[in-house]
Structures are given as C-alpha cells and as structure tokens.
From TrEMBL:
Belongs to the battenin family. Residues 119-150 are annotated as: Disordered. InterPro entries: Battenin_disease_Cln3, MFS_trans_sf. Coiled coil: none annotated. One of its GO terms (cellular component) is vacuolar membrane. It comes from the Eukaryota. This is Protein BTN. It is a multi-pass membrane protein. It comes from Talaromyces pinophilus. The lineage of its organism: Eukaryota, Fungi, Dikarya, Ascomycota, Pezizomycotina.
C-alpha cells in the first residue's frame, strides 16, 4: 500500500511497474494470510469459521466504503487515502499475538512435533537397518572404504529417505485435493470467475449519463459499485449461523447468469437506470459471499477432523485461482465492451 501511495501519479513505465509491484505484494500477503488463517480456524471451534467469513466481508465493505467516501464524498486525494489506510495491517499483528488465545495452537504444534518425532525415528531406524544389511553383504568393500565411507553412505541413505517421505506426502496431499475438487473447489472457482469478471471487466462499462445518476463524475461509478458489492458480500458471509445452503452449484450458476445479464446490458443498454444496476451488483455480492462461507462450512461438516485443516487451506486455491482467471478475462472484457460502446455512440467509458 505504501509503495502504491508513494509512487508518482504519472504513468511512465517506471511508475506503473512500481505500482504493479505493490499490487503483487498485496496479493501475495492476502493469499498467504487467507490460506494460513482459514486453516487455523479448525482449532478454534465451529463459530470461528463464521467469524472469519464475517470478518473478511467486513474488511471488504469497510475498505471499499472508506475509499469511496474519502475520495468521492470528502474529496480527499487517492494518495492521502492510501497513506491513511496503510497503518491498518498493524491491527492484525495485535489481534493475532495479543488478543487471540494461542493455547489451542500451542497444543496442536506440540502434537504435530510429537508425530514428526515418531515418524522420523521410525524412518531413521529403517535407514539404519538397510545400512546394516548392506554392511553384511559387502563387508570386504566396507573394509577398504573405512569409517568415512560408512558415514557418507548413511547420510546419503538418510537424505534419500527424507526425499521419499516428502514425495509421498506430496502425493497424499494431491490425492486428498482430488477428493475436494468437485464438491467444494469447482463451485467456488466458478463463482469467483464470474463475479470478478463482472467486477474487473464489466462494471467499469456500466455507465449512464451523469444527470440520470447521483454522481458528478464518471470515475465515481466504480467505487460505488464496489462498495455495494462488498455490502452484499458482508451480509452473506455473516449469514452462516442463521442460514445455510448445501447445494453449492446453484448459486454459482446464478452468478454466471449475473455475468451474462450485465454483459448483455453493457452491449445493448436495456436496463433503464443505474439503481437497477445497484440492485444486481448487491445480489452479485450476496451470491459470492454465500458460496464462500457455505463452501468452508460444508468442509467443516463433512470432512473428517484429521483432514479438516488441510482441506480448508487447500480449497482457498479455488478463490485465488478464480480471481486470477477473472483478471485475464476482465482485461479482455473491458477493452472489448468499451470499444463496442464507443462504436455505438456511448463514449462514457472513455470519460472521467
């Protein structure tokens, strides 16, 4: 955030590359944080997952809403708004190391260390046994090599054992991921591809004459759409203690329908006013949040406790992958839709 805020506003190659580096760092931290913290909710009981989902929804709502209010209503610069927000990640450090009870994590860490110790001892015994067998079979060669050769062969055998163990662990995790793909990962992937293609590729072209809207500038449309979308996400991500869905594909297909409707409107301009667009964007946020929170709630219900932490963390690949795919689709969508609108005499997407 600091990198983006402190680079110049002009768009020469150096400035753009620096800002992109800031975006990449933000994405890396966001993805790593989600993968880690979502998996850790397994150790804090069922309500922790609902709290996590609600918190992520609130973060999007507060972030998008604060940016829209600061830059549109208060007239503050983008640079000042980003600098004022740069201190917020420090709250996460305080929350984790000061507020969050760490006893459950310490117990889990000790148990995992014990399991690793037992496994490693067993592996070392196997390696030593194989080494002893080879010694018996090749005693004449060992006499020529001496003690140094014995130590070298033992280290190499131990290293091969660790590599084999790591490869076996990777294969096991891959097999576990295959079992998660169709019931959990695919519907989450679909909903994220659809909603982020809408957000990044379609909504920048959902523009109306300013006199028919509550806005004074065309650049105000996108932050408003984003804030409305995040409001829907927050509500639905906070709903799991009160409302659950078990058929995850149904809202995913509804989200794809949203993408089709808004794309057709961007092409043919049949929705009469911006307020109906607001309603569809809010509905989009509701659907996205519902699939997110209910996917992980279903994992918590249906996956055995021994596999639950891994399953929660592994499934986050779907939303990250969906956002990545949608990013590439969105670049093509926005350029295509804007060119189409300009060819039809609607040049709003080229205005600010």
């Amino acid at each position: 955030m600091l990198i983006i805020a402190l680079t110049p506003a002009h768009t020469d190659g150096g400035s753009i590359s620096t800002k992109l580096a800031g975006v990449i760092l933000a994405s890396l931290s966001s993805g790593a944080g989600e993968l880690s913290f979502l998996g850790l909710t397994h150790f804090y009981g069922r309500f922790s997952l609902a709290s996590w989902s609600s918190g992520t929804g609130a973060a999007g709502l507060v972030g998008a809403g604060a940016y829209a209010v600061a830059t549109t209503s208060l007239g503050l610069s983008v640079k000042f708004t980003l600098l004022a927000s740069a201190c917020l990640p420090a709250i996460m450090l305080v929350s984790f190391f000061v507020i969050l009870p760490l006893g459950a994590l310490r117990v889990a860490t000790r148990k995992a260390a014990q399991y690793r110790s037992i496994d490693n001892s067993h592996d070392d015994e196997e390696v030593e046994a194989r080494h002893t067998e080879r010694d018996d079979e090749t005693s004449e060669e060992d006499g020529l090599l001496g003690p140094a050769g014995d130590g070298t062969r033992f280290v190499k055998a131990s290293e091969r054992g660790k590599v084999s163990q790591a490869w076996a662990s990777f294969q096991e995790n891959l097999n576990r991921s295959k079992g998660l793909f169709f019931p959990f990962m695919l519907p989450l992937l679909l909903v994220y591809v659809a909603e982020y293609t809408i957000n990044q590729g379609v909504t920048p072209t959902l523009l109306f004459p300013l006199k028919e809207t509550p806005f004074e500038q065309y650049r105000a449309f996108y932050p408003a759409y984003n804030a409305i979308y995040q409001a829907g996400v927050f509500i639905s991500r906070s709903s799991s203690p009160f409302f659950r869905i078990h058929h995850l594909y149904f809202p995913s297909f509804l989200q794809i329908a949203n993408l089709a409707i808004l794309t057709l409107h961007a092409l043919f301009n049949f929705i009469p006013n911006v307020y109906l667009i607001f309603l569809i964007i809010f509905w989009e946020g509701l659907l996205g949040g519902l699939v997110y929170v209910n996917t992980f709630a279903e994992i918590a219900d249906r996956v055995p406790a021994a596999d639950r932490e891994f399953s929660l963390a592994a499934t986050t690949v779907s939303d990250s992958g969906g956002i990545c795919i949608a990013g590439f689709l969105g670049m093509a969508f926005e350029v295509w839709l804007c060119r189409w609108q300009v060819s039809q005499g609607r040049k709003y997407c080229t205005m600010s």
